[in-house]
């Protein structure tokens, strides 16, 4: 499991950074969807499923469904696999960003 802090109604959906360190690290994610009728949660699940190459059914919000602070569980992936996939995603985004300058 890992912690996220979401910012709904953003211009686009993206990982925007982290807060804290080690076991207390929180992944910050901007979501284009509004927090209405569960749409932001659905967008978060779809976004993480795409990054981690799992089905939406494998991504679960275990706590914080009605909060900006959430705990996420990924079924079928170890904590190390999740961390590695998130790091790869961020490195790829940085490369694309730097090449477009």
UniProtKB/TrEMBL annotation:
SUPFAM superfamilies: YggU-like (SSF69786)
GO CC annotation terms, alphabetical: cytoplasm
Stored InterPro entries: DUF167, YggU-like_sf
Cleaved signal peptide residues: none
Pfam family, one: DUF167
HAMAP family registered for this protein in UniProt: UPF0235 (MF_00634)
Family: Belongs to the UPF0235 family.
Protein name: UPF0235 protein HNQ77_004358
Organism annotation: Silvibacterium bohemicum
